[in-house]
Design a protein that fits this description.
The protein is 26% helix and 20% strand. It is an alpha+beta fold. The longest helix is centred in the N-terminal third of the chain and has 17 residues. The radius of gyration is 13 Å and the shape is globular.
Length: 109
């Protein structure tokens, strides 16, 4: 299995809040639906984040903080697009990643 180095995404929103978390969840679900053999792992302060919802509690992640991710799997692809979307999801532009039909994934990849 191959694994990418960790890619840092800087939080440009004032605080990484519930809307940002939901955007990240939608983006990662879309990525993994398109590439089912690939697994996205998220890290904050060097520790793996098992539950993305924990990132917004108590203003834990703030403007300028880095959230890292890596991708593992047999044939890794789409990482630059994933980083672009996650960067937007960590900004004030997160709203566009919340708009989707119920029970459907975002058609990003």
């Amino acid at each position: 299995m191959n694994i990418t180095p960790k890619h840092a995404v800087l939080v440009s929103n004032e605080v990484f809040h519930n809307g940002n978390v939901e955007a990240w969840i939608n983006i990662i679900e879309s990525y993994q639906a398109r590439f089912p053999d690939l697994q996205v792992s998220v890290f904050h302060r060097g520790e793996r984040v098992a539950n993305l919802n924990s990132l917004f509690k108590w203003g834990k992640v703030k403007h300028g903080d880095a959230i890292e991710f890596s991708v593992a799997g047999p044939e890794i692809q789409g990482v630059s697009k994933l980083k672009l979307y996650l960067t937007e999801g960590a900004s004030r532009n997160f709203m566009s990643y919340l708009k989707r039909d119920q029970n459907k994934l975002l058609p990003l990849f």
